[in-house]
Amino acid sequence: MQDDEEAPQSAGEALVGIVTVSDRASRGDYEDRGGPAIRDHLERVLTSDWAAVGEIVADEQPAIERAIRSLAAQGCCLILTTGGTGPALRDVTPEATEAVCSKLLPGFGEAMRTASLRAVPTAILSRQTAGICDGALVVNLPGQPKAIAECLDAVFAAIPYCIDLVGGPYLETDPAHIRSFRPASATRPGPTHQEATPQ
User: Fold this and answer.
1) In the sheet where 78-82 sits, what is the strand order?
2) Helix (H/G/I), strand (E/B), else coil: 173
3) In the chain, which residues have pLDDT < 50?
């Protein structure tokens, strides 16, 4: 397991875990592009204070499980994985995610596949999922930077409220990129969210 560079955490910062799953990147044979793509997207979307904690691991289920559990134990409210979500023999990120999560949130995977299908028909081969591990929201993302952005755009509006529901920090987003959605009873003053319309 290889630690990626991480930003020092300050008081009040939300911790976000980023796990790159790649045999080649973990050996140093291949430059990690997925982790930096996630960071770039978060820098554009989040207006709350946050810091990243990154790890690069091989396509091995025990290593992926350890990375997710470790990041949750460090206090990450959100853990984003990149890579290992396809049907190939060594693609085991969804299995690792399911093994460590107490609750699964299949709607994330459904929404991401729907968004990706608009770009490529092979999006149906993705097995991305999401779930809750020790109070952290874990979301699987593909390995390609362009696909990472498409998938995060598809689901990020729901991420801040999900983190609220599991006891995490109150994340704010830049409405120029993503307008987060919370029910009216869960919102705080500010322009960065949508409120549910009363029925």
Assistant:
1) 2-3, 50-57, 14-21, 78-82, 136-141, 130-133, 103-104
2) strand
3) 1-8, 196-199
